[in-house]
Amino acid sequence: MSSQLHLRPATPADVPAIFSLIRALAEYEKLSHQVTGDADTLKQHLFGTRPYAEVILAEWEQKIVGFALFFPNYSTFLTQPGIYLEDLFVLPDYRGRGIGKALLREVAKLAVSRGCGRLEWSVLDWNEPAIAFYQYMGAAVLPDWRICRVTGESLRQLGDIREG
Q: Which residues contact residue 122 at a Cβ distance below 8 angstroms, ignoring those fewer than 6 apart?
């Protein structure tokens, strides 16, 4: 790892930088219109009484340039905990320096140290550079699984099931 690169767990003071990276990721993925949250809510969810996720930050020459946001999941087939990597992002000007690789390896180390049976994430089907990177890192991109998602009004309606 380069001496210019430093990985560390995020702190509450880092939340504005993390949220800025989330916006940059959304812009890269052409999904900026889907960012409806805010930094205050993110801070509560990362560092409140019940943390929902963790973040590892990548600093290049003391500037925050990337992050990995992840949270626990569980495999019933393995009967083991796992980690779901929600976001892995490095600012475009800092790509090609091993930062993404270092972030992914750091999350994998955490998974191993926590006794996890697997590390999972999703990738957009058009993001060929990311797919190639993940395969290079040893990941299997599963062609036969699709993500199912319920949000917004559909989620509220699903959760409002009433017996007749």
A: 147
Q: What is the CATH number of domain 5-159?
A: 3.40.630.30
Please name which of 122, 61, 69, 124 lies closest in space to residue 97, comparing C-alpha atoms.
61
Per-residue pLDDT, 147: 85
Q: What pLDDT does 143 receive?
A: 87
**What is the per-residue pLDDT across 121-153, written as a single tens digit (0 to 9) for each?**
999 888 899 999 999 999 999 988 888 888 889
- Catalytic site residues? 134
pLDDT in tens, 42-75: 999 999 999 999 999 999 999 999 999 999 999 9
C-alpha distances in Å from residue 103, one per residue of 49, 79, 83, 87, 137: 26, 26, 14, 11, 12
All structural domains of the chain with their residue ranges: 5-159
